[in-house]
Input
Amino acid sequence: MATTIAELDSRFRIPGVAQLMAGNGNWPKVQVTAPAAAGEIYLHGAHVTSWRPTGAEEVLYLSPHSIWQEGKAIRGGVPICFPWFGDKAGDPRAPAHGLVRTKSWQLDSVEQVGDAVSVAMSTESDDGTRQWWPADFRLAYRVTFGAELVLELTVANTGLSPLRFEEALHAYYSVGDATLARITGLEGAWFIDKTDSFREKLQRATELVIAAETDRVYLNTEHPLELSDPVLQRRLTVAKANSRTTVVWNPWIEKAGELKDLGEDQWGKMLCIEVSNVGDFAVELAPGKQHTMRAEIKIA
Ligand code: TA6
Output
């Protein structure tokens, strides 16, 4: 028996700070209005769709054309990709970016931590996931909405066999004009260019500029990045822990036009920087062990 939003709200609300409410698609979401930040996270996919530090504008991009429909991922915010990234190798029928961004997650706790609010959700393997990926796992996700947005994804291997999985916090950032935004902190890193037959290339320039469709997996990168936006007049830093790859994506006009839930009028307003462990840097996890990937986003 599904728990109603009213029942969830009575269990988890913190008056004036956090409440459960019906969001888009009438899907349940936790709405946070903490002293340090406002934000929201849906139980659908444990999907963060908003983070606005007090005194600042919204930081995350959410498509106005997102399709709020069972089985569909919300377009924008921070989709969780697990246990594979992109298409599943050797199985074109499998859902892109894995199995959990369209699952309904369990809400475990909502806590005020100083002037921030921390929301914990979880999900685990079931018959539905095992038909695509014969593994036993539990995911625990903790999101702290404060002066920083902290995302912590913990994967536990609850089975008897080793696991090898990819993961990504596929964050969409709102930008004033993607062609004027600049990403620094990647110089000297090698990357796989998915727009050029997955060729491996070296990032020579100090600044990454979006001047065409951009879909790159930066390899063996562990240090913080900076996204500067001269239009919105802000700089974001994206720091991470236990993540060896960073994906940078902008679909540009043509690919955006092919995505019904994005659209060619939207590509210039978003830029994805994805803390991840993908490809050769997928995570190997022994039975009974767990791994936590962490992203910390703040306005510089
Ligand atoms: O992270 C970049 C990427 O892998 C792109 O190749 C593009 O497919 C994007 O993710 C969005 O994927 P989605 O399945 O959400 O449309």
The first strand starts at residue 18 and ends at 22. The pocket of 6-O-phosphono-beta-D-tagatofuranose is lined by residues 73, 86, 96-97, 170, 194, 215, 247, 249, 272, 274 (CB under 6 Å). DSSP finds three helices and 23 strands in the chain.
